[in-house]
Fold:
Amino acid sequence: MKPGAGMNDDPKNFAAVADQFRNAELKWSCYNVVSEMDDGAVVWNTRTGAIVLLDRNHVCELSDFFLQPGAAKEGSFVSEFAKLGFLAPFTLDERQAVASTFRQGEGYLQLTILPTTFCNFQCIYCYEDFSNSLSMSQEVEGMITSLVQKQFDMRPSIRTLVVSWFGGEPLINLGSIERLSSSFQKLCQSRGIAYSSGITTNGYLLDRTTFLDLVEHGVSSFQITLDGVAKNHNAHRPLRNGDATFETITGNLNDIARLTSDYQIVIRSNFDRDNVKEAEDFVSWFEGLFKNDSRFSFYFAAIYRSGTQKDECINFCSNGSEINDDISYVLDLALEHGILHYYSPTPEPKPAYCAAVMPNSLVIKPDGSLYKCTLLLNPKDRIGDLESSGDVTLTDNIDLWRDYSYANDTECKTCVLLPVCHGGCPNARLGGHRGCLCTLETAKRAMNLYCLSQKQKRGGE
Structure:
């Protein structure tokens, strides 16, 4: 190909061409994802997390950089592109650099706390067994506070405490959340440690008063599930007595939306082959209430088999390809409706797919028993127990998580999404298959959505 020829007017071919040429100092990063748009191309670097929208002039400038012999990295645009990681030093082994970040995260302590295993819902797909439900005692609360204090004392590198409230339905035991949150806030404030807290709740008990109470106690992010509009949601997620829940939850959301508090609410919609057909109704509902409120976002997630008799009643998606086609369909619907704050599957680079494999992360049940994954909460999955002193006694199960690796998975190691995925869901891999974060096509749709939202915020620039 002659210098400067072949692609200046065709952004979608940019990545393919850039990958064929090398500059003396810089190369096109192997972790760049490119998606064509009408007025240029979106480029996302999964290793650095940078994402930009290039107009055609910028595409031409980068084309010249790669295709003209002797082109240097002079000029603010190319130089900035190198700083963001889209252009990598020619000598850098990017794959090794990403592999070396796996499990690195000494600067934080992450706790997922179940204040109760009771739940007021009877969801048709729930994998949890509520036959032996219990709520946390103040004695166990004291053990958790001692654990945090001891970790702060032992590990001066901790700069952030991240707490996620889970269940059961955690709001059934609001008292434990309040008391523990107050303790965490005081401990962090006294040591100059940042505190971050979020909650996964069905939203039924999240009235205005409770919401404001949680915000006061440091909870700033909320995940609430609505499985479509009223008919589908009520069929999927009724109360334990069978009563409908949609109106109560959406009433709470409407009240919360009127508040001026700073928070983020993600509405998760679980889908199977049946209710995904009504996705447009859900998107229209969301558009009518929250389109102009960036504190609210939503996303769709497939329902997976629980391994119980409940599976017989659910029309599951047959495979991963079908799931990603459905998610892509919803992303397209969001674009059509002008909803630009879909909860994007293009996350920041991180040291692991999830906290389960991180050494500084624990799941704590109401009795003080310790686990690694919220999908694995049966007694056989227990990795240890809390002591009253704040010490932790571990079982041999911890070795499963300490030894977890994707090092022998060639496909993962060469995947462009590795920096944000690190081998996929550990639970899936330990079960014998790969649980990828998303497909490349789904990620590209999300990139386009993200760029459109940023353009909207900046007045169309």
